[in-house]
Amino acid sequence: QQQVKQSPQSLIVQKGGISIINCAYENTAFDYFPWYQQFPGKGPALLIAIRPDVSEKKEGRFTISFNKSAKQFSLHIMDSQPGDSATYFCAASMDFNKFYFGSGTKLNVKP
Amino acid sequence: EAGVAQSPRYKIIEKRQSVAFWCNPISGHATLYWYQQILGQGPKLLIQFQNNGVVDDSQLPKDRFSAERLKGVDSTLKIQPAKLEDSAVYLCASSSGLMDYNEQFFGPGTRLTVL
Q1: Which residue in B45, B57, B59 has the most chain A C-beta atoms within 10 A of its own C-beta, making it the best mutation to test that interface?
Q2: Per the CB < 8 Å rule, is B42 touching A41?
Q3: Could you tell me how far CA A92 lies from the centroid of its own chain?
Q4: Using CA atoms, how far apart are residues A107 and A57, in angstroms rounded to an integer?
Q5: B11 beta partners
Q6: Listed residue (B2, B39, B36, B43) closest to B19, CA to CA
Q7: Which residues pair with A94 in a beta bridge?
């Protein structure tokens, strides 16, 4: 049973455009929703995270939008740059452990 | 600050052989995680330690996988015997504790190929 469903599988965006990646979950016990960025040959690195008591969190060009009633959350990358080309994973967690990751989105930002 | 270290970086074995992976977490980090990342998928948690105790190993295939974290620092993950479907990247991560959502820092992973 997949705890977190992520889409799209791959995404191509022009430089300067907006990249949007979506995730959905079922378990309402989740209380922490991080996004990770992974470059080839490297481990994932935390990008930004949100708790369900807020609907949006912004850090630089990265924004998480959270819809508790729909059990969905999304990552928006504004002014996408070629250096943002990587694989992005959403995740969900509860009780400070049991992290469940989405299947990943491979982002390619064209110059 | 040194990151999470893992070795070896790559390993090729034949099915039914045994293999072991080593992880050295960031100094002072109490929580250590082992993940399995199959190509094209997200990481799947195999086991989580708090110091040298197991917090969660519900997704660890215990008939062939084992892990230990002696003295609450380094950790080893072993597969015995390996199957073709064990081909994956094995990621180790560490965080400073379990009292809040502390950032997990991942190592570069060990890429295992089982032939």
Answers
A1: B45
A2: no
A3: 10
A4: 21
A5: B112
A6: B36
A7: A97
Q: Is some CB atom of chain B closer than 8 A to the CB atom of A88?
A: no
B6 three-state secondary structure: strand
pLDDT class of A1 with cuts at 50, 70, 90: low
A37 or B104, greater pLDDT: A37
Could you identify the residue written with the tokens 């230990």? B68
* Minimal C-alpha gap between B47 and chain A (Å): 9
- For residue A79 the two structure tokens come to 């002014």
Model pLDDT, residue B21? 97
What is the rounded distance in angstroms from the CA atom of residue B76 to the CA atom of residue B70?
9
Q: Which amino acid is at A90?
A: C
CA dihedral B54, B8, A44, B103 (to 10 degrees): 40
Long-range contacts of A47-53 (CB under 8 A, 24+ apart): A47/A75, A47/A88, A48/A75, A49/B101
Closest chain B residue to A6, measured at CA: B42
How many Cβ atoms from other residues are within 10 Å of residue A3's Cβ?
A: 17
B30 touches chain A (CB under 8 A): no
Place of tokens 């080593």: B22
